[in-house]
Amino acid sequence: MSARVLIVVTNVDHYEADPSHPTGLWLSELTHAYDIFEEHGWEQTLVSPAGGKSPLEPRSLKFPNYDKSAKSWHGDPARMALLDDTAAPAQIDSADYDAIYFTGGHAVMFDFPGSEGLQRITREIFERGGVVGAVCHGYCGLLNTLLSDGSHLVAGRNLTGFSWREEVLARVGEIVPYNVEEQMKQRGARYSKALLPFVSNAVVDGRLVTGQNPGSAKETAAKVAALL
């Protein structure tokens, strides 16, 4: 039976603390997952907190992040059109999907955590036995997701995501809205990171799969695919 995957992207195009500083979807974090799931012949749908357009993070379009996968998507008008018209959570029936996968980019720090629609979909997929995946800042989308018993989905679970050390090295520590690594720990998550920054690192805990940074995009998606 063919799997169905819901991929979450952002609607935000700038930092709230500095509107002149652009941000958006980190393209390769979408494309590596899309490529892997497509190879399996699985149905994929893009959703965002508000629906509609998902802008691109300019830094994701530069070397070394602008890899073959990202270039192929960026150069394909049909693929780019998918980012102009994403679904809104209210349009999504979670029963139609076997997995939800949160992409990253600093933009998601602003619109993922407060989306009650995404929280509902995530909870329903997870509690029905589906897979929840997130790469890099995508784990911001799991910060406020509660299970039916009122506990945080991430509580007591092993996970990773973009580290505070990487925020500082990326020179955005002064303008990001919060320290997501610390926020995750406060919610009871068992956060871990690779010894070196920006190297591939993915963590699997049951049906929760998380990747640390852009370099983890392919590994994270592959581990989600393995569970499916």
Would you kindly provide a written description of the structure presented here, covering whatever features stand out?
With 228 residues, this protein is α/β, with parallel strands linked by helices. The chain has one domain (4-227): Rossmann fold (3-Layer(aba) Sandwich). It has helices at 27-39, 68-74, 77-82, 108-111, 116-127, 164-169, 180-186, 217-227; strands spanning 4-8, 43-47, 99-102, 131-135, 158-159, 190-191, 202-205, 208-211. It has a six-stranded mixed beta sheet with strand order 2-1-3-4-8-7, sandwiched between helices. Strand 7 and strand 8 (208-211) form a beta hairpin. The longest helix is centred in the first third of the chain and has 13 residues, at 27-39. The termini are close together. The mean pLDDT is 97.
Number of domains: 1
- Specify the structural class: alpha/beta
End-to-end distance = 10 Å
Q: What is the assigned CATH homologous superfamily?
A: Class I glutamine amidotransferase (GATase) domain
Runs with pLDDT <50, length 5+?
none
Helix-strand topology string: EHEHHEHHEEHHEEEH
The radius of gyration over CA amounts to 16 Å
Per DSSP, the total helix count is 8
- CATH C-level class is Alpha Beta
Q: Assign the CATH architecture.
A: 3-Layer(aba) Sandwich
Tell me about the biggest sheet?
Answer: 6 strands, mixed
CATH topology: the name is Rossmann fold
Percentage of residues in DSSP E strands: 5-15%
Shape estimate: globular
What do the pLDDT scores average to?
97
Order the strands across the largest sheet as they lie in space: 2-1-3-4-8-7
Helix content: 25-40%
Strands, total number: 8
